[in-house]
Amino acid sequence: YTGHCPPLEVQRNDKLLWLWEQSRALYPSIYMEEVLRNSPQGRCFVRAKLREALRVAELPSTPHSLPVFAYARPFYTYTLKELSQADLVHTIGQAAAAGAHGVVLWGDVEYSRNRSNCQKIRDYLLGALGPYIVNVTLAAQLCSRQLCHGHGRCLRRHPDSDAYLHLDAGTFRIHVVAQGRRAHVVVRGAPARWYTQRMAHDFTCHCYQGWRGERC
């Protein structure tokens, strides 16, 4: 896989401008096939879909780009096999770093078909998925505050880079705390100066409507 959308698909999307003009948001699918597990091709595939969606979001003649919410699954497509840590980064992490407005985790009735499946999802939420979502969410919020005064979201300066919005493992600790049948994720720590400097090196701001400038 080349990591780029075929020119024909780009042309087709351009011809659908009438549709984008009537849209209020875009929802590109970034589902991961198991055959792409832990692969550079999987990372490139998701990156290209996000990049094209963000390009299309700029086409309508509106004063601001359309919001982009990536549709993802916590499991490989058509399976109940959990996304690996690397593929959580390639999907959810990449959507955040590319500048998407959010991620919609999607599933089907198979997730709740029986007690075993429900338990599997719970274990995944408390194991890898939940802490990673909290990690990316807080890192994105921190970047917005530090770089964009809370008036914009961060996105990669260089779209082809492998920079991600992750909390620094050296200064932050993420724990899952169980209280009976309930559990929640606890984060402790503070960003070091070098961490903020690295964010400024790797990311820039996309200002929210009504705000302008390099730092919004």
TrEMBL record:
Question: A Gene Ontology MF term for this entry?
Answer: hyalurononglucosaminidase activity
| Pfam families in the record | Glyco_hydro_56
Organism, scientific name? Crypturellus undulatus
Entry GO CC: cytoplasmic vesicle
What is the E.C. number?
3.2.1.35
Report the catalytic activity. Random hydrolysis of (1->4)-linkages between N-acetyl-beta-D-glucosamine and D-glucuronate residues in hyaluronate
Report what the protein is called: Hyaluronidase
Keywords carried by this UniProt record:
Disulfide bond, Glycosidase, Hydrolase
Similarity annotation:
Belongs to the glycosyl hydrolase 56 family.
